[in-house]
Amino acid sequence: MKIGGREINSSCILTLVLPREDGDIILKAEALQDFDEFDAMCPAPLAPKVLTKNGPEDNLKDKSYREMMNHYNISRLAYIVIRSLEINDIEWDTVDIEERKTWLNYVEDFRGAGFSAIETGRIINLALEANSLDEAKVEQAREDFLRGQRAQAEKSSGLNTEPPSTPYGPPVAE
Asked: Cα separation of 33 and 82, whole Å?
């Protein structure tokens, strides 16, 4: 695919550098293209029905349904983090992407590797940021684009002032 003549063939990749005395740890997170694999492995729970005067409706307040949705959302977060960090070729101690029961172990694996709670939070945020587009990113991209447009305009070889009036031919009769 091309947009404005530019070939688009990559997704968003963000980088995080964690300082260490024995050498910095560089982590990257890549945006996921879709959630098809997750949806196949972990279908969203369905709310039980309750009979009302308007007919059957989803009972979104059902305690077991809310617990299942909570677990579903936590699993989705773990999937996003694990898949987004795949670009780093991480060798997990207890996480296996093919076994969704292990996904929630990623935090323990980070702790076991010596990452602090703050560093683990930064890693999770890196993965989430790679998979999101907030207004600050859009505004920064817009500013960068407009700055480039102004720089191009300043380099223009066109006149930036009006040429002085010069007499040519007979004066116009008033």
From this structure: 14
Sign of CA dihedral 82, 88, 89, 91: negative
pLDDT of 156:
65
With beta carbons less than 8 A apart as the criterion, state whether 120 and 85 touch. Answer: no
- For β-strands 13-18 and 6-7, DSSP reports them as unpaired
Contacts of 140 (CB under 8 A, 6+ apart): none
Task: Encode pLDDT of 62-72 as tens digits.
Answer: 999 999 999 99
Tens digit of pLDDT for each residue in 85-98? Answer: 999 999 999 999 99
Say which residue the tokens 């936590």 belong to. 74
pTM to 2 decimal places? 0.74
